[in-house]
Amino acid sequence: MKKQNVRTLSLIVCTFTYLLIGAAVFDALESKTENQRKVVLQEIQAIVRRKYNISDEDFRIMETVVLKSEPHRAGQQWKFTGAFYYATTVLTTIGYGHSTPSTIAGKLFTMCYAMIGIPLGLVMFQSIGERVNRLSSVIIRSVKSSLHCRQTAASELDLICVVTTLSSLTIAGGAAAFSRYEGWSYFDSVYYCFITLTTIGFGDMVALQKDNALSKKPEYVMFALIFILFGLAIVAASLNLLVLRFVTMNTEDERRDEAQAMQALAGAVRLEGDVITANGSILSGQMGHHCTETTSLDADDTSVCSCHCGCFTSNSRHRFTVRRSPTQIRHLLPVLPMHELHLPQGPVLPPPAIYPNHRASI
């Protein structure tokens, strides 16, 4: 089985195993809390209905009003500032879900916009990631040169350390700012930054969604957008070093197989009319003036002639073309028992003349 197929099957097995492990862990961590919250909410719902004498239909209307009014707490979501924030979440594939188009035209434009914007964004972030890695390699080389290190070139491990440090500093700094502006705990802010920069975008925690921040805090809006774009560029640099290396393995193996197949095709063996020397070379061609290469055989290059010329004459010059030098050719030559060999009748022909001062020209 090809190496590419083995790697693909291994990745499929590992991925599904990882999914099963993750599902088991999340089940153990979250299912009990989910049941407890459900019981508490049902008790509160019953208390409110008894206290205010609200029917089930009226209570569902209240739930709808509360849910629909939640996005409007941040101000108008579809003015230019909010629309730019929404377009950023579409292009970066974060998709918080804090605001979604409600018209048919808006939904249609979102699909068309994403078809062009998502590839454009991926290419842009990938290019920025490559530039970040190149700048990091220059800085690492300069630092090593100033420290008089023997190896001044930036290794892949050095780049991974630098990019990991930049990612950690970006998340730590962004978490501090969001904790201040949003009133979240620092851990929740770190969680939000990680979910955002990995483009998971659950939407359970979204910045710029309270106190009419989209309209009254332009500096905070600018910081949030810059944080998203800069952080995604750093993450792209990490992906360029780690993930894409494994992604391109199959492509490299396929190119290597194609190159080996081309070499094997170019070195195909043809024995009819060929001369196989003792060192494994195959010299093929015609005798006489029809050939373009001239070859003389030394004593250490004694040959076995498979053409139909009968013998080598002492004064003739033999012209051959080198096709291939196989390491083993026994399987190409038929071996017959002694009683089946038909030895020629008559005088034994003399062996070919040997020219000690001439070498085979290839």
The tally of strands reads 4
Low-pLDDT segments = 286-308, 310-316, 327-333, 358-362
Radius of gyration: 38 Å
Strand content: under 5%
Number of helices: 10
Shape: globular
Largest sheet: 4 strands, antiparallel
Order the strands across the largest sheet as they lie in space.
3-1-2-4
Helix percentage: 55-70%
Query: Helix and strand succession?
Result: HHHHHHHHHHEEEE
Provide the structure class. Answer: mainly alpha
Which whole number gives the mean pLDDT? 78
N- and C-termini, Cα separation:
38 Å
In a few lines, what is going on in this structure?
The protein is mostly helical. It has helices at 3-52, 56-69, 80-91, 104-146, 156-182, 186-197, 213-216, 218-241, 243-247, 249-266, and strands at residues 274-277, 282-284, 303-305, 321-324.
Overview of the structural elements:
The protein has 362 residues and is mostly helical. The chain is built from ten helices and four strands; from the N terminus they run ααααααααααββββ. The chain has helices at residues 3-52, 56-69, 80-91, 104-146, 156-182, 186-197, 213-216, 218-241, 243-247, 249-266, and strands at 274-277, 282-284, 303-305, 321-324. A four-stranded antiparallel sheet has the order 3-1-2-4, with no helix packed on it. A hairpin with a 4-residue loop joins strand 1 and strand 2 (282-284). Helix 5 packs across helix 6 (186-197). The longest helix has 50 residues, at 3-52. The two termini are 38 Å apart. The relative contact order is 0.08. Residues 286-308, 310-316, 327-333 and 358-362 have low confidence and may be disordered.
